[in-house]
Amino acid sequence: MPCYARSVADAPELTTDAFRDAVAHFATGVTVITTVHEGRRVGMTASAVASLSLDPVLLLVCINTKLPTHAAIDASKRFVVNVLGEGHEELALHFARPAEDKFDGIELRAGHDLPVLADAIAYFVCEVHERFGGGDHSIFTGLVQACDAVRGKRPLVYFRSGFGAILDQEAELLKESALWHAGSAGGFGSYVTAKPRN
Q: Cα 56 from chain centroid?
């Protein structure tokens, strides 16, 4: 029967570095969690976000208990999940860094009480449904009040401690085909072998 450790102390061979390395191989999307508390806008970059339920419509976010955003959400009981798109690396890094006003110079969508980023490819406005303890994090489940998405946009991806994107295989094949034709027709250019399609 397998034995599962309750903490690193219960399994000396398990280290936090080993866990971080392993979990870094799980690709996720990238979001910015925002809220307002006592008239002050607060936000942070997060990847621990997931859809939870359709009835009622719920999602969840996991936030370190030591962060200002945690205290703001716990007090205000509402938050927004802003989904970042391809090319939004700088926006993700911006909200990951400490700053007096993270919203300085950041464009927001009109018509919302909470901060909804204008550049987000999707957003979910939520009321806190429940909060659960999870070690050094809290798990907030959010009852979705409103949401929207920009069609045709691809997400920013976080994998092995770096940002990436999802490739459109059809577009890549067309690009490679164009490069091959340019090279063979003009006697110069690049020849790229098209990847086989699955």
A: 22
| DSSP code for 190 | -
* Low-confidence spans in the chain with pLDDT less than 50: 1-3, 185-198
Distance CA 136, CA 63 (A): 8
What is the β-pairing status of strands 40-46 and 31-37?
Answer: antiparallel
User: How does DSSP assign 46-74, residue by residue?
Assistant: E--EEEEEETTEEEEEEEETTSHHHHHHH
Integer Rg of the chain from CA: 21
Measure Cα distances from 52 to 7, 135, 139, 163 in Å.
26, 20, 12, 25
Per-residue pLDDT of 45-102, as tens digits, reads: 999 999 999 999 999 999 999 999 999 999 999 999 999 999 999 999 999 999 999 9
Sequence spans of domains, the chain: 13-166, 169-198
Counting every residue written for the chain, the total comes to 198
The alpha carbon dihedral of 149, 34, 101, 29 has a sign of negative
Domain 13-166 adopts which CATH fold?
Pnp Oxidase; Chain A (2.30.110)
